[in-house]
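Page 47, continued from p. 46.
Same chain as before, 279 aa.
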Amino acid sequence: MSRRYPKRASFAQILAHAVAACFAVCGARTARAGVEQWCAAPAPIADASATTFVIQVPPSAEVRTIVGARVRVAATHPWVGDLAFVLRHPSGVEVELVDRPGIPSVGFPGPWGCGGDDIDAWFDDGSAIAAETRCPLGVAPVLSGVLRPAGQLASLRGRAPQGAWTLVVRDDVAGDVGSLLAACIELDTAPDCNGNGVADAVDIGSGSSMDADGDGVPDECGCVADLNGDGAVNGADLAQLLGAWGPCTGCSADITRDGQVAGDDLAIILSSWGACGAS
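Result:
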């Protein structure tokens, strides 16, 4: 005997989800600085199989690192307990969003997983509601709002945002079919000029990087002691610094920007001697 009679999403449900998905895809970039959304193209979910959806995140003009991540999934399916969703970073690191919600049984409708229709939810580590055990009776989409994923999106922190991300959608039971309407990753990123997986501001704040000129960029990423911009710290820069010795507001020789060219600026010149970027 079948576990249930197969159901299909109504046209009204599909249309409503499609409209919502359009807003998610068309409004790909958010207003907050450092936060952007990138989305996959909608497509059917293969029945009793796995379907891979690609989300391309292009490189930015500067090196950045992930400091936070959320994921939005919108899909039609008449029995969401059949489905599992896994987000894969370009490096291969995976985060399980949800794996057949309602299994083990959470009381409705039984051992086959959550029997409700459709998903339109944000997955966020900060949510108090676990996606795995969410299955409200008579509600569609049955998974909605902001839900806590099965895995930790925090595992993506410190990784580069760019590249081909994938969302793997697995349908483990034949008979019911659905479609992915929206799959978007929202990435909060920060400058990481030295590529160490730590935001520049954190490097500077912790003391692991110096910021002698106070420009918010770790000194190892630039060459603050190259006063004449010729790609090397040498006698010409030393001569420029000595020529400006003493009170000096706004001059390039005041590397530490404390209003005077003095021993601290000289120390930076001497410690940076040689070709810029050389270790």
